[in-house]
Amino acid sequence: MSASLSWLSALAAGLLAARVVQKLWFPYFWRDLFFLMKVIRYGVKLELFKLTASVHTVLDRFIEQAQRIPNKPFVIYDGTVYTYRDMELRSNRLANVFLHNVHLKKGDCVALLMSNEPDFLSAWFGLAKVGCSVAFLNFNIKSKSLLHCFDCCGAKTLIIGSDLLECLDGILPSLLKSSIQVWTMKSHCEHPQVQTLQDKIDAASHQPVPAVLRATNSLKKTNLYIFTSGTTGLPKAAVITHLQSLKAAGGFWAFGATEADVIYIPLPLYHSAASLIGIGGTIELGATCVLKKKFSASQFWTDCKKYEVTIFQYIGELCRYLCNQPKTEFDQDHKVRMGVGNGLRQDVWREFLSRFGNIKMCEVYGSTEGNLCFMNHIGRIGVVGRSNFFYRLLFKYDLVKYDMTKEETVKDLHGFCQRVKKGETGLLLAKVSTLSPFFGYAGSKQLTEKKLMKNVFVKGDTYFNTGDLMAEDKDGFICFKDRVGDTFRWKGENVATTEVTEILGLVDFIQEVNVYGVEVPGHEGRAGMAALILRPGLRFDGKKLFEHADRDLPTYACPLFVRLQEVMEMTSTFKQQKFQLVQSGFNPSTISDPLYVLDYQQKSYIPLTQLIYNSIICGERKL
């Protein structure tokens, strides 16, 4: 008896000691394990599709939910409730119109240029039901860039929202010349060459089209194209497969969301965050989403309280806008328990929680086309993701040394990349494998190849170059540090410096342009700045530059600052030197070159004085 008691006491002491060691040295062990088990469970489900004759897609899941919970609200938009059944029948009508009136067939690619509205989803689902791939167009891009998008994905049909017809100004003849048919969500249209959908939808059947049209037997089948900033100067069409769509749709579920949640989506649907994670995640759960046409800081908490929102999607800039709103006694009078997004700065994060309550902010890191995703399921402030031994077994990634001045990776004597030490900043590379494939971009193979690095650590290996500098601490928490190369982020959008360079280079008084991003205190990302060299004998014209940039560039891509230089510095490999320019910023007291700032009131670039600079730094002047 005493021996048994001794054995039990020893066991209890051992378990207690193990618990203490786990708490001290592995404090996140169980949370990591349970989260990873959820991810693996979801991944196994996707892998099993490879063993079956057909794939259960996000669209199939939507149709399944419409049968299971037909009367449950799926989308709430501008106060109107659309149930799962409502959206199912509406998308059926559109599918019949696409099949019989627009004469689309399985395999066609259709471009969708629409604002956030329920019919974005109806058109998206309707096109998918007839087996078409859909290209989501950013309604901010203009003329040349918009036409380029059709060339990328091969779309020969455009569906345009009734509120975006002005986007056709100047490009409709080019679209028609390229044999692209244009349809709009209206009953009548002033453009005789633009055909109408609404009158045909009203007359169409709500019966489903044959299921064989949407069926697929491959997870790697392309179902969407989502455009990202192109380092070649124009947007790139990232290939989105069923595999990527299904992975993204599991995001909310992995963070602990349920079908009882109400999800607030204020981000644009043409981006993967809102469409793949937001809408896809809502469908996977069988939850309800509140869709906003456009984010409004003043309406945000009113909406959250009115619709009993429990989860919201964000980008860091959105949270900063909310923190800048006047404080009220109702700041914590809501049911929001979780935010899912990316780009949240530490200072804004802390202020947001302090002011609006104990909301779990779940940062997600991953590019639209990338093959790697980090998820901060712990909620640690200031980090984009969490890694551990088990995660590294499944998802191979490395941080390698990067020379910012030369804008290239640092190689060893054998020509291979060098890993950084824990806590050091390095370029994030993700290994391309069967578990983590990279599907690339539509169009030129060079675009896809440019994002890949070969022979990184050994001969024959291949890695996806994220273009992001990251650091991982000893506890496995991963922090975003900076972007490298020819892209920076502003107002929640990626800006391709080469696209801006090409467009500004068309201005008659400009000889050479170097575009880059500079940090502005109190703002997420980097503001655009252009270093210019003027043509001999010509003068800088702020009004002409403004008119050109405003006409041909999205608002977020227009440079906020201009710097006139005598000589453009180059790197040792004859590329424009950006690092020193980025470091020097836009302070007129430390820069001898003439500086200008974008002024929307005067519709011009005006001299950047110390007074204006100070007003920008203290937040008085809005950018």
UniProtKB/TrEMBL annotation:
Domain AMP-binding enzyme C-terminal: 499-575
Chief location: membrane
Stored Pfam families: AMP-binding (PF00501), AMP-binding_C (PF13193)
GO process terms (BP): long-chain fatty acid import into cell
The keyword Transmembrane belongs to this UniProt entry's keyword annotation: yes
Record keywords: Cell membrane, Fatty acid metabolism, Ligase, Lipid metabolism, Lipid transport, Membrane, Nucleotide-binding, Transmembrane, Transmembrane helix, Transport
Catalytic reactions on record: a long-chain fatty acid + ATP + CoA = a long-chain fatty acyl-CoA + AMP + diphosphate; a very long-chain fatty acid + ATP + CoA = a very long-chain fatty acyl-CoA + AMP + diphosphate; tetracosanoate + ATP + CoA = tetracosanoyl-CoA + AMP + diphosphate
Domain AMP-dependent synthetase/ligase: 64-376
GO molecular function: long-chain fatty acid transmembrane transporter activity; long-chain fatty acid-CoA ligase activity; nucleotide binding
Signal peptide annotation: none
GO CC term, one of those recorded: endoplasmic reticulum membrane
PROSITE patterns xrefs: AMP_BINDING
Segments forming a coiled coil: none
Gene3D superfamilies in UniProt: 3.30.300.30, N-terminal domain of ligase-like (3.40.50.12780)
Topological type in the membrane: Multi-pass membrane protein
InterPro entries registered for this protein in UniProt: AMP-bd_C, AMP-bd_C_sf, AMP-binding_CS, AMP-dep_synth/lig_dom, ANL_N_sf
EC number: 6.2.1.3
Source organism superkingdom: Eukaryota
Record localization: Cell membrane
Cited NCBIfam families: PRK08279.1
Family according to the record: Belongs to the ATP-dependent AMP-binding enzyme family.
Protein name: long-chain-fatty-acid--CoA ligase
Source organism of the structure: Fundulus heteroclitus (Killifish)
Source taxonomy: Eukaryota, Metazoa, Chordata, Craniata, Vertebrata
